[in-house]
Design goal:
Layout (H helix, E strand, L loop, with lengths): L2 H10 L7 H15 L8 E6 L8 E6 L4 E6 L11 H15 L18 H8 L3 H22 L17 E2 L16
Parallel strand pairs: 1-3
Antiparallel strand pairs: 2-3, 2-4
Helix pairs in contact: 2-3, 3-4
The structure holds zinc ion.
Length: 184
C-alpha cells in the first residue's frame, strides 16, 4: 500500500459537517429572518440529496401540491464548502417558492430566472453580501472542487436513485448552476 492510497482513503472518510438538522435549522433561520412575509402554504421538506455537477439545488412540488421538496447538492455538506454556499442555495430555492415556482403560491413571473430576478430578490431581502461571497466561491472553486470530492460520498447517496418520483415540473431542466449569474 502506498502513501498515496492511504491519503486517499483518509480523505474519503473525512467527516461531513452539515446534516439534516443543519439544513432544517437553516431553512427556519432564513424563513424567519429574510422571508417572514412569505406565507407557508404547504409542507416544505428539505434535504441533502444528489451529487450533481452542474446544479447546487432544486425545488419541486408534489402532484397534490401538499409538499414542496427542496433538495441541496450533497457535496455542500463537506467542510471545504463555506456555509454561505448551501445557505444561499437554500435562499435561492425559497425565492422560487415565493415566486410560485415549486409552491402553490400564485406565480409572479413567467420564467424562474429571467432578468436575474432571483439575485435581485436576494438583494432586496438583505442577502446581498452572502450572495456575492457565494457567487465568487462557485465561480472560483466549484468546477475544480467537484471532481476532487465526488469520490468522498457513499454511492447510496446518488440522487438518481430518488430523483423525480412523485413530483412534477422540476426546475431541474431549466435551472443551471449559475442561475442567471455570470455566463448563465
Ligand atoms: Zn433556480
Amino acid at each position: 500500500m502506498s502513501f498515496a492510497s492511504v491519503d486517499s482513503s483518509t480523505t474519503r472518510c473525512a467527516p461531513l459537517v452539515r446534516d439534516q438538522s443543519w439544513i432544517e435549522q437553516e431553512l427556519e433561520y432564513l424563513w424567519d429572518n429574510h422571508f417572514a412575509d412569505v406565507p407557508l402554504v404547504n409542507r416544505v421538506a428539505v434535504r441533502f440529496v444528489g451529487t450533481w455537477r452542474s446544479r447546487l439545488g432544486l425545488i419541486t412540488l408534489s402532484e397534490d401540491e401538499h409538499t414542496t421538496y427542496i433538495c441541496l447538492n450533497t457535496l455542500l455538506r463537506l467542510p471545504e464548502v463555506p456555509y454561505y454556499v448551501p445557505s444561499i442555495t437554500l435562499a435561492h430555492e425559497l425565492v422560487h417558492y415565493a415566486h410560485g415556482f415549486g409552491s402553490p403560491l400564485p406565480r409572479k413571473y413567467r420564467y424562474p430566472h429571467r432578468g436575474r430576478i432571483v439575485e435581485r430578490e436576494l438583494s432586496r431581502r438583505g442577502l446581498r453580501a452572502e450572495y456575492d461571497l457565494y457567487d465568487d466561491w462557485v465561480y472560483t472553486h466549484w468546477y475544480n472542487f467537484y471532481p476532487r470530492f465526488i469520490g468522498r460520498l457513499h454511492p447510496a447517496w446518488d440522487p438518481l436513485r430518488n430523483g423525480g418520483q412523485g413530483v412534477r415540473s422540476p426546475l431541474a431542466a431549466s435551472d443551471p448552476l449559475r442561475n442567471g449569474g455570470r455566463g448563465g
